[in-house]
Amino acid sequence: MRSRFYRARLASQACQAPPRLPLFLHATGRWANKIGGKLHSLGPWSDPDAALRKYPEQKNDVHAGRKVRADAGALTVKDMANAFLKHKSERARSGELALRKWQE
C-alpha cells in the first residue's frame, strides 16, 4: 500500500478532472469512474485526453452492465492460439514437422 505522502505527491502532479465527465483521479495514478459499485479505469493521469476519448466509448456497455468490448482490431488469445495451431498443422502436412511432434 502506498503512503499518503506518495498519493499526495501524485495528486499534486496530476491535472484536474474535467467537470463535464464523472471521472476522478484515483490513488493508483489513473483516471477512474465508479458505476454500480465497480471501479473502471480509464487511463493514466498523464493522459487526460485519452480518458476523455475512452469514457464515451465504454459508457454504454458499463451502464448496461455488459463487459466492455475490446478493440475490434485487438489480437485475442483465441486468435493467436488458432494461428499457431494452423501454422503447425500446415508444417505437419508439408513434412517439415514430424507427425509425432504434431500429436504431442
Which strands sit side by side, in order, in the main sheet?
Answer: 1-2-3
Q: Into which percent range does the helicity of residues fall?
A: 40-55%
Number of domains: 2
How are helices and strands ordered from N to C? HEEEHHH
Radius of gyration: 22 Å
The chain-level mean pLDDT equals 76
Which structural class do you get from the secondary structure elements?
Answer: alpha+beta
The tally of strands reads 3
- Low-confidence stretches at least 5 residues in length (pLDDT < 50)? none
Which helices and strands occur, and which strands form pairs?
Elements: H1 4-13, E1 24-25, E2 30-35, E3 38-44, H2 48-64, H3 77-94, H4 99-103
Antiparallel strand pairs: 1-2, 2-3
Write a concise keyword list for the protein shown above:
single chain, 104 residues, 2 domains, 3-stranded antiparallel beta sheet, 4 helices, 48% helix
Structural summary, described in words:
This protein has 104 residues and is of the alpha+beta class. It has 2 domains: 4-64, no CATH class; 70-104. The chain is built from 4 helices and 3 strands. It has helices spanning 4-13, 48-64, 77-94, 99-103; strands spanning 24-25, 30-35, 38-44. The chain has a 3-stranded antiparallel sheet with strand order 1-2-3. A hairpin with a 2-residue loop joins strand 2 (30-35) and strand 3. The longest helix is centred in the last third of the chain and has 18 residues, at 77-94. The mean pLDDT is 76.
